[in-house]
Amino acid sequence: MTPAPPKSLSSPSGPAAASAEGLEELLAAPLGLRERKKLKTRRAIRAAAFRRFSTQGYDATTVDQIAADADVSPSTFFRYFPTKEDLIISDDYDPVMEAALRARPRDEPVMQSMREAILPALRQVIGAAGEEMMLRMRLLNEVPAIRSRSALEMIRSRDLVVAVLAERTGRPDDDLGLRALVSATLAVYGEAVEHWYRNGGEGNVADLCEQALDAVAEAFRD
Questions:
Q1: What are the tens digits of pLDDT across the range 23-53?
Q2: Nearest to 190 by CA among 204, 177, 207, 209
Q3: Which domains does the chain have, with CATH numbers?
């Protein structure tokens, strides 16, 4: 199925605005005051960029245009995003995931901890930023430079999760079993998001992630 084109990323109002405010609170919760200020600037730059991408396209949008729309200098842009591609492949969700993982019971199975840490936040993210995620996925599939850099971002996310779980379990961070489990789980999430995108954003991404995890678990039980 051909995915539906992303809608315009205009300023939200009503329930959408409330969802956006909830997302901002979620992202800011694990951060100190200084980091919250940085987050606000990062998200202002990203929002300006995505408005441009949705109306005039990725390639036609320049850093200078994004910086002007976000009311920052180009040098400030590059302090937050080393390249234009980083607007797409990076996000602000890692501190939320890390805090959620650290809050899980230490004797909980690793897979269960990852489920409980990631899925609730993912539900809130999709509720507030589903259109943005659709646009990000489209650009990831269409722009080779974004696609090539996304692999590095996945490695960084994997290493973050492995480090937290190694600390919690007492296993070394080069433990093959732990790294394989984290890599496999993140790959399942990625496959579910890709499925959601390929089907035009139909269904709930978090539900699809749960279905995909259940399918893998069931296959290993056979």
A1: 778 778 888 899 999 989 999 999 999 999 9
A2: 209
A3: 15-221 (1.10.357.10)
